[in-house]
C-alpha cells in the first residue's frame, strides 16, 4: 500500500493534566501530515483543499516523545470534487511500532475566488491515485 510517512514534532505542552497527549493535538498532527503529503495537490494560488469531515479513534494513550510521532497518510476514495484520507498516528518503542490513533478525513477541492468546491483535475487525480489504499478499519463502525 502506498503510504506517505510524515514525522511530526511534539511539544511538551501537548500533554494534558492526565499526562497524555490531548485529543486536539492529534488533529494538529494529522493536519501537519496532510499539509506536507498533499503539497503537490494544488493547481494554483486560488485553490486548496478543505476538511469537510473528520473521524478519529484513539487506541493507545500517547505521552510526550522527543522523537515526535510518525503519521502515515494515504488516500482511500477519490470522487469528482472530493476524496478521503486515512491516517495512523504512531510511535516506535524498542523497534516496535505502536499505533496511538487512526483517523479519516473527507476533503474537498475548493476555489477560493468562487467560494465553491471544484472538480479534481487530471494531474491531481493521478497524484491521489498514486497514494491509494484501503479505508481505515475503525473498531466501531461509523453511524
UniProtKB/TrEMBL annotation:
> What Enzyme Commission number does this protein have?
3.1.2.-
Task: Return one GO MF term.
Answer: hydrolase activity
Q: Which UniProt keywords apply?
A: Hydrolase
InterPro entries for the chain: 4-hydroxybenzoyl-CoA_TE, HotDog_dom_sf
Listed Pfam families: 4HBT_2 (PF13279)
Where does this protein come from, organism-wise? Aquipuribacter nitratireducens
**Is Calcium there in the keyword field?**
no
Q: What is this protein called?
A: Acyl-CoA thioesterase
